Amino acid sequence: MPEKVMTWVDERLGLAAIYNLILDRKIPKVNWWYTLGSASLFLFLLQVFTGIFLTVYYVPSPDHAYASVQYIMDEVAFGWLIRGIHHWGASLMVIFVFAHMLRTFFMAAYKYPREITWLTGVILLLTTIGMGFTGYLLPWNQKAYWATTVGTEIPGTAPLIGGLLERILRGGSELSAVTLARFFAVHIWFLPAMILLLLGIHLYLVMRAGISATPDETD
Amino acid sequence: MSSSYDLDRRDFVKIVLAFLGSVMGLILGLPAIGYLISPATKVQKSEDWIPAGALENYAVGVPSLFSFTRSKKIGWEKTVSSYGVYVFRLGEQQVRVYSNMCTHLSCRVTWQEEAKEYICPCHDGHFDIDGKVTLGPPPAPLNQYETKIENGNLFIHFVEGSHA
Question: Which residues of chain A register pLDDT less than 70?
Fold first, then answer.
């Protein structure tokens, strides 16, 4: 009976074909370093999940940002867990995405026909760092405030366009409610949307070109 | 080798993955539900005995205004509300406490000594010294607070919602 149901559903949805395409791919003999991409994907999904839950209580306004984070940590049931996973997951994700990039580089997996996979990966690494940068301000504590002050001053030192760049990042000449609101918007809408799009391309290309074998002495 | 067991390597990996996945899903999923419903499980304390100072500070026979504030923290937002009551001392140990909130539309009434009445400035509602309506639109007498006297100090029983 369950067999029949599965066949009926699959005839209509073609899930088995998708499953085979995504998970039953042929792969060369590889090692544990080749799991870093999947690990990064897992961490990203974890960040999406915990991030969505954090927005239930977090308020991106200088009046309430700090207090709402304290509320999540001290009063909401398992708030410490959700924020803790988001906090540590963020650092882990940067580490894993970076290690994933190093593996791809040292295994020379960026070459033909995988150049576009590599390029989308480079942008994904940058957006991941961007997520870290924008997310760091959101708790609106001393560390967040001054880290962002310095972090936005750095592009400010660029010749000619530095001043403009800094004002665009801050939404004005100083760190303010506007800065917090735009960092929040970039953190939960702009960058995640970009990551989803690039991740889609990245994963499609991984499935299309397959995994490159580890280089040997003939390479 | 695999023929001696029904479970091959692939199925073993699938089962382990499904098991670990379920464990991780539960570890994250169950707290997430608690996280969402958490504020609903907290009930705010909505009544208290407000100390109003020594009873002897209030003149006998003349209602006098006593104001107090209550602060409340809901989520991350703290709100402070102020309340006013008229303490009317009838005798040495006898006291009545009325809310200064008009029962019509919640304006603040004031005691007018020359008229011997509480008068509401909004729609000219009048209440006598016992809080009963004598004139105007108020539908009910002034709300009265429960009181207690301990060691010569007056306490007012504040119950949220009943007088607001």
Answer: none
- For B47-159, CATH gives 2.102.10.10
Mean pLDDT by groups of 10 residues along chain B of 164 residues: 71 94 95 95 83 89 91 88 91 89 92 92 93 92 92 89 53
Pick B34's closest partner by Cβ from A59, A71, A77. Answer: A77
* Residues belonging to chain A with any Cβ–Cβ distance to chain B shorter than 8 Å: 46, 49-50, 53, 56-57, 59, 64, 67-68, 70-71, 75-79, 81-82, 85
Q: Which of B32, B75, B77 sits opposite A53 (nearest CB)?
A: B32
Burial A17-44 (b: 16+ CB within 10 A, else e): eeeeeeeeeeeeeeeeebebbebbbbbb
Residue A37 in any domain: the answer is yes
Output the domain CATH number for residue A188: 1.20.810.10
Euclidean distance between CA atoms A212 and A34, whole angstroms: 10
State which residue of chain A sits closest to B73, comparing Cα positions: A71
Contact across the interface for A78 and B34, Cβ inside 8 Å: yes
